[in-house]
Amino acid sequence: MARTTQTLTDAAAWCSTKGVIASLYLWRGMDVYRNVATECMRESVGFTHACQQCWIEDMLCSIQSCVNTCVKSFYIIGEPKNREDGSLGICLECDEKICGPDFLSCSGANRRRQGIQSDIGRNDDKEICQTVDMDWIGESQN
Predict the structure, then answer these.
(1) Alpha-carbon distance 70 to 74, whole Å?
(2) What is the value of pTM for the model shown?
(3) What is the number of alpha carbons within 13 Å of residue 81 lying toward its C-beta?
């Protein structure tokens, strides 16, 4: 996993782009996309099958929900992953807000929630949980 902390977002974006190009070229839609993106992620990242499926579903969600925003962000205005103020660029913000909840449900966690530094800048003081309040466990059993 350590080898992907600085490259995972770019690898997923590249695999997603390959999937989109293949599906458009072959006029076969999301089945071709899924196959090409899955094979690309398997070769470039090496996740377990279950983890990879969470990523593929997130990538499909991003295409269905954020593709116009991401094309504008990366290819028209050339926005980086993070803005100068540290906030997410519009593409990653779209993915996080629209697709993030299902990704978290599927995977159980993301890099930010686990405190793993990655190629997406984060404000650690505001976004990484520093403590866990365990009192609620005892209260729920009463």
Answers:
(1) 6
(2) 0.70
(3) 12
DSSP summary character for residue 30: H
The string of pLDDT tens digits covering residues 75-121 is 899 888 778 887 888 988 898 899 988 988 888 766 555 555 554 55
Cβ atoms of 65 and 47 within 8 Å: the answer is no
CB distance 45 to 11 below 8 Å: yes
Could you give the CA distance from residue 57 to residue 124 in angstroms, rounded to a whole number?
A: 27
Angle among Cα 105, 81, 10 to the nearest 5 degrees reads 75
The encoded tokens of residue 132 equal 């866990």
* Residue 121 region by backbone torsions, left for phi larger than 0, else alpha for psi between -120 and 50, else beta: beta
Looking at the chain, the number of H-run helices and the number of E-run strands are 7, 0
Reduced to 3 states, what is the DSSP secondary structure of residue 82? Answer: strand
**1 DSSP assignment:** -
